[in-house]
Amino acid sequence: METALILGLTSGGACLATCGPLVAAFLTAEQISLKRSAALLTVFLSGRLLGYIGWAVVSWLLGQAIFQNTAGMTIFAAADLVLGGWLIYYGIYRPLGHSHESCPASILKPLASPAIIHHAFFRSGIWGILSGLQVCPPFLAAVTGAARTGSLGGSLLFFLVFYLGTGLWFIPFPFIGTLGRFRQVAQVARFLTLPLGAYFIYSGFISIAGGNSFYG
Amino acid sequence: MTILFALAFPIKLLPIFLSVVKTLDLKIAPQFSGGEVDFVIDRGSHQIKVYHPVYPALFGQGSKGFVQLVWQPRSALPSQVQDSIDLNRDGTVDCEISFSNPPGEASAPVLTVNAKSLWVFPAHNSPTISLEGVLIERVGDAMFVRIPIRKMGSS
Amino acid sequence: MAEMFVTPKDRVEPLPGLGKNWGASLLWTLLMVICSLLLFSKGLSQGSPAQRVAAGATIIFLTGIFLWMMRSGETYRPRRVFYVALGFLFPVGFILELIAQRASMSISWEQMLLGNTPFCYLALPMMALPAVLSKTIIFPGSILPTPENHHAFGTMLALWFGATLILGRGWCSWGCFFGGIEEGFASLRRKPLWAKIDRRWTLFPWAVLSVVVVGTAISLAPFYCEWLCPFKTVTEFPAVTSLRTAVQFGIFTTLFAAIVVILPLLTKKRTQCSFFCPLGPIQSLTNKINIFELKTDPDRCVSCGLCEKACPFLAIDRGEGGLRQVNMYCSRCAACADVCPKGAVRFRIKGTPFTVNSSAPRMMFLLATWIFATMFGGSIIANSVAKILGHLF
């Protein structure tokens, strides 16, 4: 579960960097008070949790399918290598989210527009679910991590810890000030995917070459 | 003021700072220091210092750890040493430790641990890999040994 | 492109004060000689012949550097000579000591078991969280100095704390010997081969800091030392006896080659210090409490950008109208102040206005800094020279 927490802490910032401006659009609007902003954020994070639970179930099913295969561990190790490389690429080359188009869930954005959903709290919840269903390298890394646990309970726990790690980044969000300061924090958060990617490459390499990874 | 501070630092301020550090009562993490000595077994030709079990964790104690033992000879350790150790002094032998002590600094000692209690891991090691794992290291005339264990009393 | 460094006589407005005449220069230098003699008195009087020669040579070397600073009015180039000497002599002396003791650069398990591993200040950021949570220092050394281990945690913490109060991030240009290695490589070429550097990489050390702090708390071992420190290449490292130690060896040697040797050579920037070192962000924060700073006088700045090109830490930001401003990552190396043709970038004591006699803050900074440099860097240079002489003769 340490892996889940580290994954959440390191990738949560990157998720914030990508989807943050979108969240900011409905959390930090001029007329919204801090109390209302915090309430909307709570609904958003609850929706996000629902999305994560969905992924936990998918991960468990994936793990069941792969563990039937005798080459399952090699598949996971190879996935680690690919994910590690993708995480590093993501950290260096993916531009910081300065528009909502960069959010991986943007394809579903029309579903959550004010024209369709009038109530702000309901809209925040939908956004939360959408952000919890995104497909990006840190999330895929969490999927493989959860799938490895081999049980539904393990997968749920893995995603819960991952969720807590990512969620910590959203807590100070209503208080984040100027866009400049946000971009610096977001950039550092994005950079965290580099050591995370390096860890996955190392883990995959050690699994294939033989021996224990650093944490196992 | 900064110039005066720079001048005074090596002479007066460094010892004051060190005494402040002393009051903080910090300790080197036991996974490196080996912990504190629990009791000493006297075998005549040598003594065995048995340390408190160490279970490294950021908060509280972990579920796995090690016990450090130090063979301190009165003159010199024999080339082959075998000892039965009751680690928690409950009257039952917890492990049988044997190690070779080849002459010459270039020759590495080889350790074998036969676990008699379920919370002691059987081990065989040569050479030392890490401080937290199985370890045998010659230090002067003494032999430092660390054997991995689970929480004492657990199965 | 204009010359990187111009001498004061080429400036439109020469720096007043500092570098004015021989009398003032010699007087200040004499003060530093007296400090040096006091600090090296033990080595001069009680040491072996090699130690006495080394102490004497070091005093002459430091005196020459300081006199050069006083007479020329420059700081960056004299400082660089001292700093590069420190950077290369430290590992030479360290390695000679290891070879003499163990005939190997491998870490000694005996040394770790006895708590005699010298504490490195780069490990300081990692120690904070476990020290607060469990009152333990996660390092195989000792808390207070012992006859076998002078470089205890307490000693290095004290040195770092004192240096930080005096220098702020100036520690990175006047104290940290590892920085001297890459500054040496950065100064080999006249012009950079790779001038365009993405400034967002100056934020990467914050990510490294986060990783080493969390990694140490979780692994209960000094994470940076085990996995990331490039300077193990020139100090000591675990023997390669497993796949894990082989990977660790590969990581630190690659990092050393890439960010300590090759990138500084190509960019003429301190790439390890600016883009990787986890102590850098902490040192940058300490700039906030240090009374000295380098600041741009907006009335004099002509937005030529020479300071920005000269800064080895990418610590100069471009503001409105092209006005350059020194940011929190400044290491007080004075490259910008020396290169500025208008004397716009100057040392200043925080809270005071820019004055006509603008050399006074630089003078005060140099006096405090050089006393520290003599004590810390000078003693390392003297020790290393003594070891080299001991081996040669």
Could you characterize what this model shows?
The complex is a heterotrimer of chains A (216), B (155) and C (393). Chain A is mostly helical. Chain A contains eight helices and no strands. Chain C is mainly alpha-helical and 393 residues long. Chain C has a domain at 109-287. The N and C termini of chain C lie far apart (48 Å). At the A-C interface, α1, α7 and α8 of A face α10 and α12 of C. β1 (27-28) of chain B pairs parallel with β1 (136-137) of chain C, so a sheet runs across the interface.
Class of secondary structure makeup of chain C: mainly alpha
Mean pLDDT of chain C: 88
Helix content of chain A: over 70%
What pattern of helices and strands is seen along the backbone of chain A?
HHHHHHHH
The proportion of residues in beta strands of chain A is: under 5%
Structural class of chain A: mainly alpha
Distance between the termini of chain C: 48 Å
List keywords for this structure.
heterotrimer; A: 216 residues; mainly alpha; disordered C terminus; C: 393 residues; two-stranded antiparallel sheet; 17 helices; 5 strands; 5% strand; disordered N terminus
Topology:
The complex is a heterotrimer of chains A (216), B (155) and C (393).
Chain A: H1 2-27, H2 34-67, H3 72-93, H4 120-132, H5 137-148, H6 152-167, H7 179-191, H8 193-209
Helix pairs in contact in A: 1-5, 1-6, 1-7, 2-4, 2-5, 2-6, 3-5, 3-8, 5-6
Chain B: H1 2-23, E1 27-28, H2 30-33, E2 37-42, E3 46-51, E4 64-73, E5 80-85, E6 95-100, E7 111-115, E8 123-125, E9 135-139, E10 142-150
Antiparallel strand pairs in B: 2-3, 3-4, 4-10, 5-6, 6-7, 7-8, 9-10
Chain C: H1 22-39, H2 41-46, H3 49-72, H4 76-102, H5 109-113, H6 124-134, E1 136-137, H7 153-167, H8 171-174, H9 177-186, H10 204-219, H11 223-228, H12 243-267, H13 271-275, H14 279-286, E2 292-296, H15 306-310, E3 316-318, E4 324-326, H16 335-339, E5 345-349, H17 359-392
Antiparallel strand pairs in C: 2-5, 3-4
Helix pairs in contact in C: 1-3, 1-17, 3-4, 3-17, 4-9, 4-17, 6-10, 9-12
